[in-house]
Design a protein that fits this description.
By secondary structure, the protein is an alpha/beta fold. Helices cover 19% and strands 30% of the residues. It has a 15-stranded parallel beta sheet that branches. A 7-stranded mixed beta sheet has the order 5-4-1-6-10-7-11, sandwiched between helices. It has a 7-stranded parallel beta sheet with strand order 12-15-18-20-22-25-27, covered by helices on one side. A hairpin with a 2-residue loop joins strand 2 (30-31) and strand 3 (34-35). The longest helix has 21 residues, at 237-257. The radius of gyration is 32 Å and the shape is elongated. The structure holds uridine-diphosphate-N-acetylglucosamine (UD1) and calcium ion.
């Protein structure tokens, strides 16, 4: 069987989206780490069309710019002031070569769970039945608001009637138009030209193409789908949350089928963009976002949020917040760690409790175990940063960088005042304030030497050694 490819996919995204009550365009709202229109473009792209068009109008520049960033090969078509899905398609067609023929798919920018596989199934039905028009239909418990699918005695589709234009009898039809179609391009051009705006909404309906094609003895077929989530659009924020939760459920199932354990799917949120390796365990209350990749045999969570984080095989990350960071293989992070952008922890490295890092390259086997701020610092292999160390990178005007060499030991509660370079195989005494470079093999002590003053208490005139009673 030859692989079917559409000549074009048209993604309609010119609608106003008023029910979102948002200053942002509806299709730029996100679920599962991608904007609604990004989901639509990804599904469309998966069918390998010769042309991919997104139709825009409301918030035109924002949507066009976003789409161009996602996929520079997308054609952006502007819809004019004539409203309706039919007009949107006409405007999209105007951006395609006039001699183009073949099959055109139409989808919506606000139907985020639709997959490429479903579009390919539609394409297959369309080709196999030699139909001029094939539309995806669904049976919904509550069809309110949808166009109803009217079928003739032969089972062919004869018309779609919009909810607002339907008779009481037509409203009783349970099969609805999902708004996803395959068209023969030449038929689409000709029939659209015959569509008017005489309907309850005064719009140019794409759905009118169906009755016109039927009247011209062209074959119109339905492609029913059972997975109605794939046809559901986002009109308000309640649907946004519903579809977001369902997408998450599907992503977690994919991850589990691929061999990772998700201990508590109800409290785990993983973006569709994330990959998780085999035998990794995701513990409860964990969120993994963006372009994160998690290796095999890791333990992530509980209570961990990772965004754009790369985690190597066998790493453990517990009660951690991390953004734009790399955690090496078999490294250990947490609990209560905060990894900010530019953190790179090497293999078997450690970032422990109440440690904050930023632009910190921590080499293999190095340890920053407790209560430390490590900002703008390079730490060498197997170095040990004592509890309470602060890399003071900011002098009130500018940020400066420090370095600590391999196998160097920084004593507890030291402050390293950047810029300072501490070589390898060196020691810093506990409680030091280090403001000058330290060479290989040196011990740096940057603090007042301890003095013990004999007889001090007696001279102060205290009668006994106990502290004074705080209640008097
Ligand atoms: C449409 C169908 C209806 C179907 C339903 C499925 C028509 C006339 N009706 O109705 O049969 O059951 O979808 O969800 O097609 N859009 C534009 N330009 C416009 C109007 C809409 O690009 O002028 C886009 C919207 O951004 C949206 C999509 O088309 O992505 C659907 O628009 P919407 O207004 O939601 O269509 P419905 O009235 O729900
Ligand atoms: Ca809609």
């Amino acid at each position: 069987m030859t692989t079917l490819r559409p000549a074009a996919v048209l993604v309609l995204a010119a609608g106003e989206g008023t029910r979102m009550r948002s200053r942002r365009p509806k299709v730029l709202h996100t679920i599962g780490g991608r904007s609604l229109v990004e989901h639509a473009v990804a599904a469309a792209r998966g069918t390998h069309p010769d042309h991919l068009v997104v139709v825009v109008r409301h918030h035109r520049d924002l949507v066009a710019e976003h789409v161009a960033q996602l996929d520079p090969d997308v054609l952006v078509a502007d819809q004019d002031e004539v409203p309706g899905t039919g007009r949107a398609v006409e405007c999209a067609l105007a951006s395609l070569p006039s001699d183009l023929d073949g099959t055109v798919l139409v989808t919506y920018g606000d139907v985020p769970l639709l997959t490429s596989e479903t579009l390919l199934g539609l394409l297959h039905t369309h080709a196999a039945t030699s139909a001029a028009v094939t539309l995806v239909t669904a049976r919904l418990a509550d069809p309110t608001g949808y166009g109803r699918v009217l079928r003739g005695p032969d089972g062919d589709v004869s018309a779609i009637v919009e909810h607002q234009d339907a008779t009481a009898e037509q409203l009783g039809v349970g099969e609805v138009n999902s708004g996803l179609y395959a068209f023969d391009l030449a038929v689409l051009r000709k029939t659209l030209a015959a569509v008017g705006t005489h309907n309850a909404q005064g719009e140019k309906y794409l759905t009118d193409v169906v009755a016109i094609a039927h009247e011209r003895d062209l074959r119109v077929r339905a492609h029913p789908v059972d997975d109605v989530w794939q046809t559901e659009g986002v009109n308000d924020r309640i649907q946004l949350a519903r579809l977001g939760a369902e997408l998450n459920r599907r992503t977690l199932e994919r991850i589990m089928r691929d061999g990772a354990t998700v201990v508590d799917p109800a409290t785990t949120w993983i973006d569709a963009t994330v990959t998780v390796g085999t035998d990794t365990v995701i513990r409860p209350h964990t969120q993994i976002h963006g372009a994160s990749t998690i290796g095999a045999d890791c333990v992530i969570g509980p209570d961990t949020t990772l965004e754009d984080v790369e985690v190597g095989d066998g790493a453990t990350v517990v009660r951690t917040q991390a953004l734009l960071a790399v955690i090496g293989p078999r490294a250990n992070v947490g609990p209560f760690s905060y990894l900010r952008p530019g953190t790179e922890l090497g293999p078997q490295g450690k970032i422990g409790g109440f440690v904050e890092t930023k632009n910190a390259q921590i080499a293999a086997g190095a340890k920053v175990p407790h209560l430390t701020y490590a900002g703008d610092v390079t730490i060498g292999e197997k170095a040990n940063i004592g509890a309470g160390t602060v890399f003071a990178n900011y002098d009130g005007v500018a940020k400066h960088h420090s370095s600590v060499g391999a196998r160097t030991f920084i004593g507890s509660n030291s402050v390293i005042v950047a810029p300072v370079d501490i070589a390898g195989n060196a020691y810093v005494a506990a409680g030091s304030a280090i403001t000058h470079n330290v060479k290989d093999g040196e011990l740096a002590i940057g603090r007042e030497r301890q003095r013990n003053i004999e007889g001090w208490v007696e001279r102060r005139g205290e009668k006994d050694h106990g502290p004074t009673d705080p209640t008097t």
